[in-house]
Automatic annotation (TrEMBL):
Alphabetized UniProt keyword annotations: Signal
Protein name: PEP-CTERM sorting domain-containing protein
InterPro entries: Ice-binding_C
Signal peptide stretch: 1-25
UniProt keyword Cytoplasm present: no
Organism of provenance: Roseateles agri
A Pfam family assignment: PEP-CTERM
Superkingdom field: Bacteria
Length: 178
C-alpha cells in the first residue's frame, strides 16, 4: 500500500512540475559564433511596438545587454524577415555604426508591429556585404527542462522495479531471515 502511494505521489509531482513549467515565460539565449561573436538573452515572445518596427520588413530592440565581440554591455539589434533576406544587424548602443550585418533565416514568427516569437535552433547567417564570412546563431531555451539520457532513465526504471519487487516479496512474506 505504501509503495502505491509513493508512486502516485511521484506521478502527481511530475505532472505538477510539467504543468507549472509550461506556464512560465521562457527566456532564450542567443549565441553567435564565427568572425564576430556575441551572446545575449531575450524573452521568447515580445511586442516590439509600432515605433520599433517597420511591418513587413524588420523590428529593432535598443540597449540589449549581452557580450558583443568580447565586451560586456548593451547593443542595438535589428531582426529582419524573409522579404528582405532575414538575418540580423548588431550596432553599438550609443550612436555607433553597425558592427555586424547579416542575411539568412527569419529568426522569428509573428508580425513586427504586434507580437513576435523567436525560433529555436541553429541558423547559418551570411555577411550582408558578401565578404564570404559566415556565422552560426544558436537560440536555446534557458527554461527548458533537461532531457534525461537513456541510461539515466533505465537506472530510474530499474530502481523502481527493484523497489516494486522488494515490496511484493514483503507482502507475500518471502523475506529471508538470517
Amino acid at each position: 500500500m505504501k509503495l502505491s502511494r509513493m508512486v502516485a505521489g511521484l506521478v502527481a509531482a511530475t505532472v505538477i512540475s510539467f504543468a507549472t513549467s509550461a506556464a512560465q515565460a521562457s527566456t532564450y539565449q542567443f549565441t553567435l559564433t564565427g568572425d564576430y561573436s556575441a551572446t545575449w538573452e531575450l524573452p521568447s515572445t515580445l511586442s516590439p511596438g509600432q515605433f520599433n518596427a517597420l511591418d513587413g520588413v524588420f523590428f529593432y530592440l535598443f540597449g540589449v545587454d549581452g557580450t558583443f565581440q568580447g565586451i560586456d554591455g548593451p547593443a542595438n539589434l535589428e531582426f529582419y524577415n524573409d522579404s528582405v533576406h532575414g538575418g540580423l544587424d548588431i550596432a553599438g548602443a550609443v550612436i555607433a555604426p553597425t558592427l555586424l550585418s547579416t542575411t539568412g533565416a527569419q529568426l522569428y514568427t509573428g508580425t513586427e508591429t504586434d507580437t513576435v516569437t523567436f525560433n529555436l535552433g541553429t541558423f547559418v547567417l551570411d555577411d550582408f556585404y558578401a565578404t564570404g564570412k559566415t556565422y552560426s546563431l544558436t537560440v536555446t531555451d534557458l527554461n527548458a527542462a533537461p532531457v534525461p539520457e537513456p541510461g539515466s532513465m533505465a537506472m530510474l526504471l530499474g530502481g523502481l522495479g527493484l523497489v516494486g519487487a522488494a515490496s511484493a516479496r514483503r507482502r507475500n512474506g518471502r523475506v529471508a531471515t538470517a
